[in-house]
Amino acid sequence: MSDAPERNAALLAVDWGTTAFRAWLLDDSGAVTDRVTSADGSLRVSERADSPSERAEVFRDAFVGRCGPWLTANPGVPVLAAGMVGSDHGWAGAGYLDVPADLRELAGRLTVVPAGESVVHLVPGLRVTGPDPDVMRGEEVQLRGVLAATTDHSATVVLPGTHTKWVRLDGGCVTGFTTAMTGELYGLLLRDSTLSRLAARRAGPEITTAFTRGLEAAERQGDERGLGALLFTARTLALAGRLESGEVADYVSGLLVGDEVRHALQGASAGVVTVCGSPSTAPRYRHALERAGVSVRTVEEDVAALGLWRIAQDAGLVPAVSDPRTEDHPR
Amino acid sequence: MSDAPERNAALLAVDWGTTAFRAWLLDDSGAVTDRVTSADGSLRVSERADSPSERAEVFRDAFVGRCGPWLTANPGVPVLAAGMVGSDHGWAGAGYLDVPADLRELAGRLTVVPAGESVVHLVPGLRVTGPDPDVMRGEEVQLRGVLAATTDHSATVVLPGTHTKWVRLDGGCVTGFTTAMTGELYGLLLRDSTLSRLAARRAGPEITTAFTRGLEAAERQGDERGLGALLFTARTLALAGRLESGEVADYVSGLLVGDEVRHALQGASAGVVTVCGSPSTAPRYRHALERAGVSVRTVEEDVAALGLWRIAQDAGLVPAVSDPRTEDHPR
Predict the structure, then answer these.
(1) Contact flag A264-B182 (C-beta cutoff 8 Å)
(2) What is the pLDDT of residues B135-181, one digit of tens each?
(3) Which one of B135, B260, B262 has the shortest CB-CB distance to A236?
(4) What are phi and psi of B147, to 5 degrees?
(5) Superkingdom of this entry's organism (chains A, B) (predicted)?
(6) Residues 6 or more apart in contact with residue A84 via CB below 8 angstroms
(7) Which of A122, A323, B71, B113 makes a 20 to 30 Å CA pair with A182?
């Protein structure tokens, strides 16, 4: 206990995905006061367990290893964690909410696991059942944050990444979503393929002429060429001396994003699309969507911290909002 | 010289691609009397050269290593070779014919390289110029063989492989073609990806229910899902317990072939499509095309030997056809 004017930590929020660990310490106004990131993703941590029964132990050790000082300085602080840490191969299986799902109901389905003198509350994922199933785990807290950060709760939200999610929100409910493995395809193609051998470098964060050429090719030829044929144009243009080796990666990125966006817009009502991604991917999707005549609003990837804060409020783990102006879910 | 009744070898024909070497010995009727295959593709051979100037030497050594006994037994036998051996990174650059190209003109553009006491004639590739360039090298001899093996010389020909070619033939001329890197994508995805970790085995040669499910998914969802989103359905179906680990590879193959065929048919006039591929790939394309209502005729991949024989005839390296019934190019 300190009589210093600093506000006490109210929540330890964790986004623990397959390949990355990110955690934030928030005060009782929901402001981030400290943060930590690590490459100790759930996949790497789970591989330290020799048997499934050891999994809880290795996850607890990894968590305390990253956040121990915060736990010591803030005994009893509530911990809320989302992402693949809640999969059956993570710390503990946190289950799923079936779509359509009200994002405010995530708070009612938390799974509690002990972590020394603390407990960790794991957020469930979302699941589409029926003939075309799909799953997400981690993106649901970003979506909860998008709801808190924006006023229009009926929209299409794109969460670019290794596995990009296209989500339909209707009045704060997720009514459906699909996934495209665009980021993973890009990684595979640039790591070891006919195209990687032509590419002098990876795509950078800026929107280049080569990226836009890739988008244009996907728009112009996408009816007659599937993605497998579109991608080969990177090779033929390079052989013809019309694509420099330094441009190949950006062009391939443009083909992949262009093909994804073109199809996704055919399945969705246009209007405004919210893009929630990293500084390197969000501008690419914004550019592709705006070329297709869609209005784009971007929300920072760190909206996960806000989403976890709101879920903690929904669950009563931290003080609820009293000011109606900041209520994010008018019914 | 022998007075035995055996016919003399008239041609040593070689299809020397990136990853495979295939050669045939043909008698003066064009019949194959012996054959040899090896994994000593042009990529592997070229890597033995420490500098570009050594390349001719390592290719000559590799060729003599495979075909030395044939050369010794048949001194002076003409040698005709096609494939990546004729690329700038092969034995010698054999150039390209620009499309539209009459396949009978391949014979007028052979490149001669010495090989000890023999000479090897390299067949040029084909090239599409203009805004959407493309190249082939090796498939042109299969096409020459398709012309010899079939009577309809105006058709769409599919040559499935690592890089599948879709070729438009009109009166024995190649008027255009495109390439889809479907086979390479399949290899990348099944080697090390989210999907490979779900797959218990590679796709086999038979047409399975899982392959057909992949085709159906591409047909049904292809408008709203690009290939990157279609592919992710393999993961979500597996997670939902609706796709067995032993079925993942066949399902992924169905998605890839289905997406490719669906787009290719939008760019081509339907009618009859000729499929010229291996016993493991040709049935997949036949099945996908027939589901789309297209009549399919299949020609064996070994038609390359026939194609090389006809090019050798066109070039005057072997006796020309005298029987008008076997003329394959009625004008």
Answers:
(1) no
(2) 999 999 999 999 999 888 888 999 999 999 999 999 999 999 999 99
(3) B135
(4) -60, -40
(5) Bacteria
(6) A16, A17, A18, A41, A42, A43, A90, A137, A138
(7) A122
Query: What's the pLDDT score for residue B327?
Result: 46
Q: Are strands A155-159 and A164-170 parallel, antiparallel or unpaired?
A: antiparallel
How far does the CA of residue B257 sit from the closest CA of chain A (Å)?
Answer: 10
Contact check, Cβ <8 Å, B237/A135: no
CA B178, B182, B187, B189 dihedral sign is: positive
Judge whether residue A133 has pLDDT over 60. yes
Nearest CA in chain B to A269: B224
Interchain proximity A180–B229, CB inside 8 Å: yes
**CA dist., res. B269 & res. B259, Å (int):** 17
The chain B residue lying nearest A260, using CA atoms, is B226
Q: Using one digit for the tens of pLDDT, what is the confidence trace for B121-141?
A: 999 999 999 999 999 999 999
**Burial profile B169-188: b = 16 or more Cβ within 10 angstroms, e = fewer:** beebbbebbbbbbbbbbbeb
A46 dihedral zone (left: phi>0; alpha: psi -120 to 50; beta): alpha
Note the pLDDT of residue B326: 47
Q: Under an 8 A CB cutoff, do A229 and B263 touch? A: yes
Tally of residues, chain A:
331
Q: Kindly identify which residue of chain B lies nearest to residue A240, measuring between CA atoms.
A: B133
Residue B174 token pair: 């190649």
pLDDT tens, A105-116?
999 999 999 998
- The partner residue sitting opposite A229, judged by closest CB among B188, B225, B260, is B260
ipTM score of complex: 0.90
Q: Supply the pLDDT for residue A52.
A: 86
- What does the alpha-carbon distance between residue B137 and residue B84 come to, in Å, rounded to a whole number? 6
Contact B184 A193 (CB under 8 A): yes
